[in-house]
Here is the input.
Amino acid sequence: MGFVVSAFILASAIMVTQVGFVGQTAVEGALLFPKEQIRDVRALVGSLPPEDSDNSGIREDVRILALARWNAVVDYRADASRSTSQGYGIRRVSLFYEDGSVTCEEVLNVAADS
Amino acid sequence: MYLVDERGQLYTLEGICAAILVLFSAYVVLQGGIVPASGSPSGTAEMQLHQIAGDALLMLDTPGSADEESLLSSFVCEKNSTGFVTSYDALLEKRTGATPPGSGLQFEAEIWYRDSSECLSIPFGKSGGVFSGNPAVRVSRFVFIPEHAGMLWGERSQAVLLEVLVWRG
Here is the structure.
């Protein structure tokens, strides 16, 4: 009986030691996510004037600079603006970010002149 | 006479085995319980520095109103590195008043731009201090430059990357 109980205590002890590592992995994952870079590209694309929203030169700037300085593949595509039934303009922008460990893709609706 | 038999020996053996197992459990818990909570202390300090530097850059790139240009993009468009250094330094030095002024955050900025398929950079001002050997963090921000700005690297409208290296002096 005593042996069975002590074996159970050992199994519980091993489980308890693993709890800390689970938390650590989750926190590391959250900290290593390149949120600043993704927000930066989002801010840039969102602030582009309508006539430059689909400028291939700027797209190439972002692609080359992000690859050289962030070691990340970054691309975006901005559709032509269309007006909604409420009368304001809206533009659909797709972002892509990949740096080897994180892949992020998102679609934004950006306010634009109709 | 009645106490010394085979069964008594078995109980003793079980007790000893159980004791060893319990001791081993205690060892496992004490040894594995020491998990670094959030990296090393210097890693935490670097993270805080990264946050301060990034926030200051974000503040500089926030326009006062919707149809206004941000300070950062006007500095970059006009190539006003002195203005950038003064404003960025002022933001880094903002304090609640609880700490003495002059935290000694030093920085050096450069602008990266694209020339056909090449990536080139020009310096964009730095604070007075020299590099002290403390770990430095890098923050960056894309800046849009409209067509008419007449920059050295071409007349086209473009996006450049402002990179700032910040360290504790």
The helical segments of chain A are 2-32, 35-47, 56-69. Chain A touches chain B at residues 2-3, 5-7, 9-10, 12-14, 16-18, 20-21, 24, 27, 31, 36-37, 40-41, 43-44, 47-49, 52, 55, 57-58, 60-62, 64-66, 68-70 (CB under 8 Å). Chain A has two domains: 1-32, 34-112. Residues 76 and 95 of chain A are 4 Å apart (CA to CA).
